Structures are given as structure tokens and as C-alpha cells.
Amino acid sequence: MLTYGKPLEGPIKSLAEEYHDRTVAYWRTWCKHCSVPFDFQDEVLRSALTLKLHIFEDTGAVIAATTTSIPEAPGTGRNWDYRYCWLRDAYFAVGALNRLGHFEEMEKFITYLRNITQDEPNLSLQPVYGIGGERVLEEREISWLSGFLGQGPVRIGNLAHRHRQHDVYGELVLCMLPFFFDRRIVDQDPGGNFGVVERLVRRAGELFGKPDAGIWEFRSEESLHVFSSLMCWAAVHHGARIARHLGRTDLADDWDGRAAQFRSILEREAWNEALGCFTMTFRGSQPDASNLLMARVDFLRPDDPRLARTLARYEQVLKEGDYVFRYRSRDDFGVPKSAFLICTFWFIEALATVGRTAEAHDMFRKVIARANPLGLLSEDIDPATGELWGNFPQTYSHVGLITSALLLGT
To answer: What is the mean predicted confidence (pLDDT) over 76-88?
Structure first.
């Protein structure tokens, strides 16, 4: 029998049984160390296992999904390769695992991040990298493959590696917060980690209020996206918290001042009083579900009336049945046909945040009922049929499930 690596040292049957038993023991032990809520334990554990399996053990990179080119909706051409590490998705994933008691994954991802940033002298970060830190992910179509259910094209690579998506700086500062405030973590290199934070904060300050492709990766044009500037504000605001914690009052005072300026601009440019909501772009008119995260990043207090008004407006425009769209406006591929599961979970989180807990519970139970028999979710869902579409299983969706379950469970 031919094998890879070391030759077999025993009978195949007994060796296979040993490997099986060791594998089962490993995952059972890992699950035992998950701090799960009393409610929704099965759903949370299945989601946690999915996230863990999306992490490349060698580098700490987190892939967005294990598949490529399953369309967001039939016949749309929205077929993408998600087998790469989006820095944004990785932040959400390791944050969810950290809340379940697994912070080793976050430590590994920070190592991955530091390896990337040390090779970026100007810290012009891509939104997405290969699992080994590869920068060039050229996108191409495989014409001889018909695609999922014949719904091509099949793409390998992802054009997003060329995009400017300024929100990543805020997400990475937030990802590093536990290194300075979580007493369970012994930071072996506090100076080096704060050096990364300082570079991220300075770059975020430079990019606030600048056009980019946005969180939803629009391909044909850049705009001044609210969420991108919100996360630049978050980088500076939370960077100031870290600096003050470390006794760097000079930096903390400077960054607090910058954050206050950025807040003032966002409150003026991102809010549309006539519509009663925050919008996708500065002085815009289109809703954007990513703004539902404003309370989570401490931009809005839970009792801020603008959060409740934004939620009510989005309920009218973005919500269809039990599911929520990212946006409703036309993009490079037409008008979106499928709801986005992570946006649905963000909506559930916002419902609970403003005190509409019963509605949040009801909506959450309906959404998780759409998972397949193994408890897995894809990226998108047809609001009319409840059919799952998009790459599968999807990191974002399982992050949303965990976060909502922890918020709603007891």
C-alpha cells in the first residue's frame, strides 16, 4: 500500500480504528471546552465546529467557506470563490470562538495578521489573502466545468484581492483588543502587538472618509461608504482605549480627539433624517444592513433612538418574510434576489439590543430551522422558498448564529 509520509507501522484495520478513536476523542474534548448557552446548544456546537474546521492550522487563516462558485441565487452569475481568508470574516469568526472560550484560534490569527502586516510597509492591506498569506488571487473562469446544478460560471481566485476596503483596519484593531484586556491571555510580545495596533490606527485615520469598494465589494465603482468610515472610527476609538490602558496618554488623547472628529462627521453625513435611518453612503438614500453593527462597535448606545429608527426603516425596506437583504439597490449584477443570512442575524441582534426580544427569539428560531440535517448554513437564502444558496458552509452565517444564540440564550 502506498502512503504519504511515514510508512504504516501496523495492520491497516487497527491503525484506521486508532486514528478514528483519536479523532473522535479530540473533537469531543474540544467541544467540552466550549462555553455554550443552555438554549441552542446543538446549533452553537455545530457552528463552532464549522468555524474550527475553517481555520488553517498551519497559519491561523480563516476561510470564508470551503466551496467555490455555488451561486447566491439561480441564474445570477454571482458565483465566487470563498476558499480564502477575508480579514473581516476572520475577525468575526475568532471573536465568536473567543466568546465560547476558545482563544487559541484568535492568537493564531493574530500571528497570521502580523506576518501579513510586516510585509506591508505602508499598511495598504488587502481585504483578502490566501491561507498562506498569498497576495495574488487572480480570478479566472473554468469554462469546461458546468457549475453547481449547471449554474455556472465556476471561478477560481477572487478579484477582491485588488479592492480597497477600509473597514478592515477597524476590525483588526477590535480583533486585538483581547490581547490587552482579557486577563486569560498572556501577551508574549505586548510591544510588538501594540506596534501593530498603532500602525492600524494611523492608517485608519488616513482612510476615514475616503471612497472604497465597501463591505459588499462593489466591482464597478468606489463610493464613500458609511460602514467603512464607521470601522475607521472604531479603529481610532478603540485604539485610544488600548493606548490609555498601556499608559500612552499622549497617543490616547490624540486618538480620542480624532475619534470625536470622525464621530461628528459620521453623525452629520451618514444619517438621513427624511428616511429616519443611517444609509449606505455619505449623504445617501440606500439602506445598508451592515449599519446594524453600530451598537456592537460602541458607536450607538442601545437606547439611542436612531438605532430603533434605523431598525424600523430597515424592517420596511430590507426585510422580506423572516430574512434580511444586504441592500436593495442595483449593483454590478442587477438587483439582489437572495437574502443574506449574516444580515438576518445582525437584524436579530439589533432587535434584541433595542428590547424587542420576543421578536428576536421568534425570528431566530425560524432561521435556524432552515439549516440542513447537519446544522449547516450557506451564505444566502431564498426568502420565498427558504432554500439555501451560496457557498456552503459559510463562516459568516455560523458566526451570526453563535452571536445571536449567546445573546438570546440563557
So the answer is: 97
Q: pTM surpassing 0.90?
A: yes
Position 215 confidence tier, pLDDT thresholds 50, 70, 90: very high
SS3 letters across the chain: CCCCCCCCCCCHHHHHHHHHHHHHHHHHHHHHCCCCCCCCHHHHHHHHHHHHHCECCCCCCECCECCECCCCCCCCCCCCECCCEEHHHHHHHHHHHHHCCCCHHHHHHHHHHHHHHCCCCCCCCCCEECCCCCCCCCCEECCCCCCHHHCCCCEECCHHHHCCCCCHHHHHHHHHCHHHHCCCCCCCCHHHHHHHHHHHHHHHHHHCCCCECCCCCCCCCCECEHHHHHHHHHHHHHHHHHHHHCCCHHHHHHHHHHHHHHHHHHHHHCEECCCCEECCECCCCCCCHHHHHCCCCCCCCCCCHHHHHHHHHHHHHCEECCEECCCCCCECCECCCCEEHHHHHHHHHHHHHCCCHHHHHHHHHHHHCCCCCCCCCCCEECCCCCCEECCCCEHHHHHHHHHHHHHHCC
Check whether 1 has a pLDDT greater than 60.
Answer: no
What is the tens place of the pLDDT at every residue in 279-316?
Answer: 999 999 999 999 999 999 999 999 999 999 999 999 99
Q: Where are the domains of the chain?
A: 37-408
- Domain covering 37-408 assigned CATH 3.40.50.2300 in the classification: no
List pLDDT tens digits, range 23-74: 999 999 999 999 999 999 999 999 999 999 999 999 999 999 999 999 999 9
